[in-house]
Structure formats: structure tokens, C-alpha cells
Amino acid sequence: MRYLKATEGTGSWKDHVSRLRWLDQHYGKLMLDEISRDAIERVGEIKRRETTPTNSNRYLQLIRAILRRASLDWEWLDKVPKVRLYHEPKRRIRWLTRDEADRLLVELPDHLEAMARFSLQTGLRASNVTGLQWSQIDMSRCCAWVHADQMKASRAVAVPLNAEALGVIREQIGKTFNLSLPIKALQSVPLIQERLGLHYVGLELQIFVGMISGIHGQAGMFRQELHFMYFKS
User: Fold this and answer.
1) b/e for 8-23, b at 16 or more Cβ within 10 A?
2) What pLDDT digit, counting tens, does each position of 33-77 carry?
């Protein structure tokens, strides 16, 4: 598809592919000029009932972007139907307290515990942690860097490493070719609940479901991604 070729290499490209696969069941047999405002609103409402208004907006924005390119760049359409987005509630930032972080780490299996400790200290997304290479670490300068093509915003990021983050890195020496941890696939929510001991930890399920979603790319199963930030002292 021309839009995918035009946007290849962007941070959201894989998300576009996934969304277009879902949209294909609704628009696959239509020509671009047959996608009316009513047709767009119907699909938006279907997705809103399946997930959330926020997630539905991502699909609507993709439809709008494709139609605008078809009109302004490719001159395939004379006009573009207006796309109405849903209201998105403002979210509060959810911090983990030290006590919550400690209880989480105790319950995590070994292959996730080290990754979670590193994420808590650096604020990196799960995909950036599991894909980190030894060449991206400078132990003497106590820093790491993530390349632009690895970041969702397509900008390189320098990451300061404190003593605990450096300790996690030292623990991985000799274990793997990459710094990334040997992540094992967790296939279902019940299994995740059991392995992470969420009932005993007493924290919200969506925090950890989101984290596993980021690690394993379970976008079809889990709709929300949340990465750990620095937790408050």
C-alpha cells in the first residue's frame, strides 16, 4: 500500500500495519472515494465499543491521514470527508511508590525482575530495554544511549545510569550476546496473573498487562502500553 511505503521507517509504522489489517475487513472492498463520513463514523463507533475512545481515535486519525495524502499529495480525491474524533479524558500520571516497586520485584520471575529494576531506574520502554546492545552502554561514563530508529519519537536519547542500573547491567555480563534479557513468552492473562502474583502484590492488573504487552508485542491482546517511569522517593 502506498501509504505504508511513504511512512516506512517511522516509529508508528508497525501500529499502522496492525490497524490497517483491522480496517481492511470494513473498507477492503471500497474505493477511496466511497469512504464517506458516515462510513468512517460507523467504523469509529465499532472500535470505540471494542476498546476505548482514545484507541478508536488512533484508527480515525490513520483514516484521516490516508485520505488527506490521497487528496493533497497523490491527487486521487477531490475532497476529504471530515473525521470527527472522540473526546479523550486527561490522564493522571500513575507513579509507583517504593513499597509498590519492592513488592512488584519480589513477585516477578527472574527474567522479568532484572528488566523491571532497570526500567524503574531509567524510565525506558520495555522494547528499549530488551533491545539494548552492549555497544550502547558506556560503563565508565555511567550512561547509555538509544538510537533514533529505536525510539518512538525517532530521536536519539542519552540515558544516565545510576548505581542500581549499572548493577543490573553488570549482572548480565557473560549471559547473553546482547544486553537484552532472555524474555520468555507469557501467553495469557491468567498465566500472567499467576506468574506475577498480582493478587498478592495488590496492584492494578493493567500496569503489568501493559508492561507484558510492550515486551512481547501482544498488541492484539492487550491494548494499552505503559512503561515504568522513575518512581517517587
Assistant:
1) eeeeeeeebeebbeeb
2) 999 999 999 999 999 999 999 999 999 999 999 999 999 999 999
Query: What's the one-letter identity of residue 68?
Result: R
Strands 137-138 and 143-146 come out as antiparallel
Same domain, 62 and 102: no
Do both 103 and 65 map to the same domain? no
pLDDT digits (tens, 9 = 90+) for 77-124: 999 999 999 998 777 667 778 888 888 888 888 778 888 888 889 988
Is the residue at 88 inside a domain?
A: no
- 34 and 133 share one domain: no
Same domain for 107 and 211, yes or no, is yes
> The domain containing residue 28 runs over which residues?
2-73
Distant-in-sequence, close-in-space partners of 52: CB < 8 Å, separation ≥ 6: 223
Element (H, E) at 17: helix 13-27
Is there a domain that residue 229 lies in? no
Q: At how many degrees (to 10) do helices 205-216 and 189-196 cross?
A: 110
Q: Give the number of other CB atoms < 10 A from CB of residue 49.
A: 9
Residues 128 and 31 both lie in one domain? no
Contact of 49 with 66, CB cutoff 8 Å: no
